[in-house]
Amino acid sequence: MNKLKAFGQKGFIHYILSHLEGFIWIFALGGMMISPVTSEQHFTFCPFYHLGFRHCPGCGIGRSMILALHGRIEESLMMHPLGLIAIIILIIRTIEIFSSKLYYSL
Known about the structure:
The chain is an all-alpha fold. The protein has helices at residues 2-10, 12-18, 20-34, 47-50, 61-69, 73-79, 83-105.
């Protein structure tokens, strides 16, 4: 009961704002899980690609993460070897955000 009282005193908006990064990573990973797996045509935010360069060290990591989240591990590793590591880092960071904030805020 004491924990609920502390949550009510600080407010729901304060909770959302203090955990915003965690919510962003949850929605990003969730979006990747429900996005279609396509390898031919894709939209990219890569500034190097839009400047005319056809390869940069980060290109393909998003598609690699999508393939891994769809269970296509071998294709994911072929697309970009750091895709699985990026997923693991994002999951660990999300857990870290919510567990430390929950522990210290309540």
